Amino acid sequence: MRLALAAIASILWSIAADAHDLWLTTSPDRPVRVLINYGHPDDRPPPAAEKVIDLRALTADRSLSLLPDLVRATSLGAPVLASQPIDFASALLVAEYDNGYFVKTANGYRNTSKRLYPEATDSVWSVKFAKTVLGPAAPWDHKMGQDLELVPQANPSVITPGSRLRVRVIFRGEPLANAQIELTDGLTPIAEKEIPVFTTDRDGDAVIPIDRPGPQLLAIDHRVKPSATPELADGDLYNATLFFTVETRQ
Questions:
Q1: Is 177 within 8 Å of 228 (Cβ atoms)?
Q2: Does residue 250 have a pLDDT over 80?
Q3: Measured between alpha carbons, how far is 155 from 165 in angstroms, rounded to an integer?
Q4: What are phi and psi of 7, to 5 degrees?
Q5: In a domain? residue 203
Q6: Which of 181, 239, 224, 174 is nearest to 203 (CA)?
Q7: How many C-beta neighbours within 10 Å does residue 185 have?
Q8: What is the extent of the structural domain holding 176?
Q9: Domain assignment of residue 32, yes or no
Q10: How many domains does the chain have?
Q11: Could you check whether the bond before residue 175 is cis, i.e. omega within 30 degrees of 0?
Q12: Beta strands 174-175; 163-171: pairing state
């Protein structure tokens, strides 16, 4: 037990050093439920249900909150499960996750603010936003107004392998230039240095080549200094993801 707790603590300390992603998928069984995934393909600490601030499924004429029915992750790599089933063939799934404050100490990163560690060499507040386009009739172009948001410029559910998808990065309502978007499948373990990265232009747009069918996870980090709460952190770290699935070409 002591070794297990030490391993979990080590994972928590590393969170701020290598920013983790939050993304939404659905269960393969029926009825369909939303899964909240956290981390990287090669590093999957459990997400915390109590840090999920918002979780919704949106259609063209309906918005369903899934927040009251979250089931905690029970092991490393396990997602948080929204126990309420969804009956939408197509929907835009959205989430917001307050990851809290982290400080860098001599023993690594700790999940607290610099109020308790004024000698910390680095400190950050971390928030994460996630969107998933589920099905071709999902309101894929709907802007949620999240602080950091990935907005596809075409319906990602209907593109085919070999296509290119233009994606716009918006930060606080404005296009974000020179931002780096990572592309993975959210499943395959891959070293950070080997993840393909695409940089936005002055209009906040990046063109993402879709070379293969299957799950596609776009992720971006954006750090701002000084923090909105400078007494608690040096900077604020924003993370956003966009997840969708590309079907095999017929």
A1: no
A2: no
A3: 9
A4: -65, -45
A5: yes
A6: 174
A7: 14
A8: 2-21+50-63+86-246
A9: no
A10: 1
A11: no
A12: antiparallel
Instruction: Assess if residue 221 is contained within a domain.
Output: yes
C-alpha distances (whole Å) from 157 to each of 48, 65, 99, 139, 213 are 29, 23, 29, 11, 11
- 239 membership: H or E segment, kind and range: strand 235-246
Alpha-carbon 117 to chain mean position: 28
Q: CB–CB of 249/158 below 8 Å?
A: no
Q: Which residue has the tokens 């939050």?
A: 22
Does residue 69 belong to any structural domain of this protein?
A: no
Dihedrals phi, psi of 34, to nearest 5 degrees: -85, 135
**Spatial CA neighbour of 122 closest among 191, 6, 223, 46:** 223
Does position 2 have pLDDT exceeding 70, yes or no? no
Confidence band of 78 (pLDDT split at 50, 70, 90): confident
Closest to 66 in 3D by CA, of 88, 38, 40 = 88
Buried b (16+ CB within 10 A) or exposed e, 67-85: eeebeebeeeebbbbbebe
C-alpha span between 17 and 2 (Å, rounded): 24
In which band, very low, low, confident or very high, does the pLDDT at 161 lie, cut at 50, 70 and 90? Answer: very high
pTM (predicted TM-score): 0.90
pLDDT one-digit tens code per residue, 16-41:
444 799 999 999 888 899 999 999 87
Amino acid at 44: R
* CA-wise closest residue to 54 among 124, 133, 130: 130
Neighbours of 242 (CB within 10 A): 27
Give 11's DSSP letter: H
| Residue matched to tokens 């063209």 | 60
